[in-house]
Every structure is written in C-alpha cells, then in structure tokens.
C-alpha cells in the first residue's frame, strides 16, 4: 500500500507543477505587457484588447486543467487501478485536451507578436490608435 501512496503523491506533485507553470506563463505575459511602450504610455486597454483571446483561453485552460486534476486525484487517490472513465470525466478530459491545442497556439502566437518592435517604440500605428481613442 505504501507504493500506491507514493504514486499518488508523485502524481499530485506533477499536477501541481503543471498548474503552477500555466499560472507562471500568464504572469510572464503580463510582465512582458508591462515592459512595452504601449503600457508605459498608458494605453493598457490596447494590449488587453489585442491579446484578450489569449488571456481568456489561458484562464479557461487553467480552470479545465485544475478541474481535471482535482477530479482525477479524488477518484484515484489510494486506488490507482480504479476505473475513472465515466461520462462526465470523459467530457472534461476531451475539453481539456482540445483546450490545450488552442492554449498552446494562442500562447505561442502572443509570444511571437510581443516580439514585434512596434510594441517597444513610438510608431505611426501607436499614434493612430492614440488619436482614435482621444
């Protein structure tokens, strides 16, 4: 029985690490936002509007992952051989896996877009956006 408990703890630690990494990825995106010229010029809403989809998908993916991990651990704790693939669990599993495709796509796309120099210096694009707002 000690081996089963060790496996449960290892799985729990891996799930915690995965969820913390997703949270850190969201923090990193916001730290990069803070470093842009747009943020420093006070046009935070432009960044939020431009990357709203990524932020929403990341939060949804984090919630789906947390839900899947909690459900997995509550069903398997102490009995790793227990059958857990019932209807609701399968649905959550499929949505979490589908969500991961969108999450990774949008996160990578955001990282590549934030590498664009126009976010870090004054540009004609930024002047037009600023004039449109004011």
From TrEMBL:
Keyword Transmembrane: yes
Membrane topology: Multi-pass membrane protein
Keywords noted in UniProt: Cell projection, Cilium, Cilium biogenesis/degradation, Glycoprotein, Membrane, Transmembrane, Transmembrane helix, Vacuole
Pfam families: TMEM138
Role description: Required for ciliogenesis.
Top-level taxon in the UniProt lineage: Eukaryota
Record bears the keyword Transmembrane: yes
Signal peptide: none
Family: Belongs to the TMEM138 family.
Listed PANTHER family: TRANSMEMBRANE PROTEIN 138
A GO BP annotation: cell projection organization
UniProt source species: Paramuricea clavata (Red gorgonian)
Subcellular location: Cell projection, Cilium; Vacuole membrane
Gene Ontology cellular component annotations, sorted alphabetically: cilium; vacuolar membrane
Official protein name in the record: Transmembrane protein 138
